[in-house]
Amino acid sequence: MQQISSVNNKTVKDLAKLKRKKYREESGLYVIEGFHLCEEAIKANKNYVYLLGTEDALNKAESDYDVDLSANNIILINNAIAHHLSATKNSQDIFMVLKIAQPKEFPFDYGKWVLLDNLADPGNVGTIIRTADAAGFDGVVLSPESVDLYNPKTQRAMQGSQFHINLITHDLSEVITSLKHADIPVYASMLDQSAKKLSEFEPVAQLGLVIGNEAHGVSSTVADLCSEKLYIPIKGKAESFNAAVAAGIMIYHFA
């Protein structure tokens, strides 16, 4: 075990920078925080670069998750450093540093996929990924313009689902074209005169389900490539659904 006691330590400074996308991309590293996410990573046999925590936090990791505290990649930190590294108001004083291992190319392993077209809210993206995981979908594809998958808020919202299903950032036009060439339908969720009610669609074994940007919906370029457009009827006076809520309804319809 290593020990660091100053927030001015170079390692601490470098890890604090990982809250920003620029430094995550430059280093190829990202940080998860909290016992639940660290536990999910350990259960998924992720090889972490560092596990940092206060004395109480590391002792809990040892007793609950069989972490070997004698390992050189275990770092004992104090409360001041934990506060400095934390991206939350109430830190649990434990952090894991992982390598970004996202595939560069869509694997085209067909099944059920959610395709996110320029989603901007990290909470929505994380919640949709978590819902897709719960519903047994095979994966989620994020357009390059969508929020960063390794944003701390996105990581927290996923609640460990990032370790359970396939996640990739890729051009949606290429993904949709590949799915359709394999005779797999791709449905775009959008309010459009040509859209059909969700209830008119039967669950299928394989599909792509496109969810659009919170403010602007599915882009015209992506929508034109899709097999069909669908919508969820609104019975009350609300103008629209939250993107994550709408995605959840549709995901479970097709689960």
UniProtKB/TrEMBL annotation:
RNA 2-O ribose methyltransferase substrate binding domain residues: 31-104
Protein name: RNA methyltransferase
KW NAD (keyword) present: no
Similarity annotation: Belongs to the class IV-like SAM-binding methyltransferase superfamily. RNA methyltransferase TrmH family.
Keyword Transferase: yes
Swiss-Prot/TrEMBL keywords: Methyltransferase, Transferase
Pfam families registered for this protein in UniProt: MRM3-like_sub_bind, SpoU_methylase
InterPro entries: Alpha/beta_knot_MTases (IPR029028), MRM3-like_sub_bind (IPR053888), Ribosomal_eL30-like_sf (IPR029064), rRNA_Methyltransferase (IPR051259), SpoU_MeTrfase (IPR001537), SpoU_subst-bd (IPR013123), tRNA_m1G_MTases_N (IPR029026)
Provenance organism: Lactobacillus acetotolerans
CDD domains for this protein: SpoU-like_rRNA-MTase (cd18095)
GO cellular component terms listed in the entry, alphabetical order: cytoplasm
GO process terms (BP): methylation; RNA processing
Gene3D superfamilies: 3.30.1330.30, 3.40.1280.10
GO molecular function: RNA binding; RNA methyltransferase activity
Domain of life: Bacteria
Coiled coil start-end: none
Segments passing through the bilayer: none
